[in-house]
Amino acid sequence: MAKRIQFSSPGGPEVLELVDFLPAEPARNEVQIENRAIGVNFIDTYFRSGLYPAPSLPSGLGSEAAGMVVKTGADVTTLQAGDRVVYAQGGLGAYSQVHNVAADKVAKLPDAISFEQAAASFLKGLTVYYLLRKTYDVQPGETILFHAAAGGVGLIACQWAKALGVRLIGTVGSAQKAELAQQAGAWATINYQQEDIAQRVLALTEGKKVGVVYDSVGKATWQASLDCLQRRGLMVSFGNASGPVTGVDLGILNKKGSLYVTRPSLFGYITNREELEEASDALFSLIASGAISVEVPKAQTFALADARQAHLALESRQTQGSCLLIP
Question: How far apart are CA 288 and CA 320, in angstroms?
């Protein structure tokens, strides 16, 4: 028997329960992974709350973890028992001691990167990869706006942008978070509690605004994001931390300068083994070189049984950077 977190109906963190289960044998194309560290991400709260419906109930939760392969399916040739691995597209169920994952969704983990580093950075790092390199190919010297710069995705984006020679303006909610983002490589920060985002971007760019805005906040920042864009600029909406954007009048995009809007996801950009390896190699090389540093505060590392507390901390914006569950 093993333990996992599941929920039987959508709701708040209180619906999460620790239960015993008997792990199934891996299918022919799967590997069975003994998780050593599990990533906690905002998308997990969307599935738990029902914003993104789970395929069936009761349901597991989480899609990111790092650990050791303990069993392989009959058709798996790329991995073997004992391999150190990480995954972020394993389907709901990563909040578990053991999880079966399709082998082509699993990346081998270099020895220089710990399980904790991997679980804290893989989903977020792959997200930053497709945002900065695929959704919009940022160029050295370019200025971009990135909301929630002191969050898990934001801190990796600050570091990655700096490595690319890109000037990242990050929005944050406190002076402490501004300092954190700047230490990670943000070119400038905007405290949205004290400053008008659009006016500050206008000043920082000497009236030029930015060519792209990366927005995982959603409803609360939608209007300000559009106001920060240059003519024919791109609005990249990749999250709903403050609630989904609804009732959009597409005519506003014309009025603001023939703007573009996209709603990308990891599953639209990493669809096969080649794309996974390209993205993970890019991330791992930056971590190995020290260009991206991943550290999880002790206060943001929870036991698997304490998944409720992890979600409470994440949704109350008490966290800085990544959160982990340890089985």
Answer: 22
Q: Are strands 2-7 and 59-60 parallel, antiparallel or unpaired?
A: antiparallel
* Residue of 169, 132, 147 lying closest to 283 (CA atoms): 132
User: CB of 314 within 8 A of CB of 45?
Assistant: yes
At 184-203, the pLDDT tens digits run 999 999 999 999 999 999 99
Give the residues of the chain that fall short of pLDDT 50.
none
Instruction: With beta carbons less than 8 A apart as the criterion, state whether 158 and 124 touch.
Output: no
Domains of the chain, earliest start first? 2-121+270-326 (3.90.180.10), 140-264 (3.40.50.720)
CA 177 from chain centre, in angstroms, equals 18
C-beta of residue 299 within 8 angstroms of C-beta of residue 314: no
pTM listed for this prediction = 0.88
| Contacting residues for 276 by C-beta, under 8 A, at least 6 apart | 89, 104, 105, 107, 270
